[in-house]
Design a protein that fits this description.
Structural class: alpha/beta
Helix content: 40-55%
CATH architecture of the largest domain: 3-Layer(aba) Sandwich
Shape: globular
Order of helices and strands: HHEEEHEHEHEHHHEHEHH
CATH superfamily of the largest domain: Alpha/Beta hydrolase fold, catalytic domain
CATH topology of the largest domain: Rossmann fold
Strand order of the largest sheet: 1-2-4-3-5-6-7-8
CATH class of the largest domain: Alpha Beta
Largest sheet: 8 strands, mixed
Length: 304
């Protein structure tokens, strides 16, 4: 009987390790398995992003920067200068990179903002080996905020993140933002690592999720020391004092829109919530006019 349980335990660990590698180990992840990347709209999104990135390079001075995070990961970003003291820190989604938000970067730059397009760890030109879906990435956000403050002590900073980027911003609330940080824009955020993994395993793929979820958490704890179930934007957002704009694609099947609604209700500061047309994290491309109108109204409300 003990041999039977030993075999079951080993199989359980192997399954947890398999899922861990496919989700969090950047050296093992096969992006072709991420169906959101295979849609036709993503090809258009990539073309638009590259076009806007080239436009930014052509019409402004671009500087490539590298900084060290608090836990000594080398992070990369593109900085596009502007006049004045308005800044935006743009933080990308899971398995994308800094250039993927060049569309938003161009919008902000045309509005007079200094633009910092960042690569979270394990993405783009940044270092790192393992993702944590927000916890470690929040250290990267804090490091880039520190970079902006060092460059411009009089800066007024907007933090704008998409999905993983938004969650990383919310998780960085635990570091207590300086007064220079003025507002947050959250696009397609998920409530917690547990919630988003449970949603994908149970609702999208119909897998008996609890044994696998605990196996993934067990393997993550052993390999990285991180307890995934402690990574919760819903918990951290209760500390938020900044005006926050929540945007989500109403038909998002990668991160359900109800998660932004939950974050909205838990957030104690001034807040706005909008649901737009579009695929996951692509409302700013597919509902461009509405997105810009909402964003412009939110920023002007606070003279940002």
């Amino acid at each position: 009987m003990s041999l039977f349980f030993l075999i079951i335990f080993i199989l359980w660990i192997c399954v947890g390790n398999l899922f861990y590698n496919s989700i969090l180990n950047i050296k093992k992840i096969n992006t072709k398995n991420i169906d959101i990347l295979e849609r036709d709209v993503y090809a258009r999104y990539v073309r638009e992003s590259q076009s806007c990135f080239q436009s930014l390079k052509k019409h402004s001075d671009m500087e490539e920067i590298y900084i060290m995070s608090k836990d000594h990961v080398k992070n990369h970003a593109y900085y596009f200068a502007n006049s004045g003291h308005k800044w935006v820190l743009l933080v990308h989604d899971y398995l994308r990179d800094s250039t993927s938000l060049a569309i938003l970067g161009k919008y902000y730059h045309d509005m007079g903002y200094h633009v910092l397009l960042v690569d979270l760890r394990c993405h783009g030109k940044s270092g790192g080996t393992f993702l944590s879906l927000g916890k470690w990435e929040s250290l990267d956000v804090a490091s880039f905020i520190a970079y902006i403050l060092k460059k411009d002590a009089s800066s007024s900073i907007i933090l704008h993140g998409v999905s993983l980027g938004a969650v990383s911003i919310f998780l960085s609330l635990r570091f207590s933002f300086p007064k220079n940080v003025c507002a947050i824009v959250s696009d397609s955020a998920y409530t917690s690592v547990y919630d988003i993994l449970y949603y994908h395993l149970h609702f999208r793929f119909g897998i008996l999720s609890y044994p696998i979820l605990f196996a993934i958490n067990f393997v993550a704890k052993i390999r990285t020391g991180v307890t995934l179930w402690n990574i919760s934007a819903l918990k951290e957002i209760s500390k938020n004092t900044l005006p926050t704009l929540f945007i989500h694609s109403k038909d998002d099947d990668f991160v359900p829109s109800i998660m932004s609604k939950a974050l909205y209700f838990e957030n104690p500061s001034f807040k706005e919530l909008y649901f737009l047309e579009g695929d996951h994290g692509l409302s700013f491309l597919q509902s461009s006019t509405a997105y810009k109108k909402i964003l412009s109204s939110f920023l002007s409300r606070y003279h940002l």
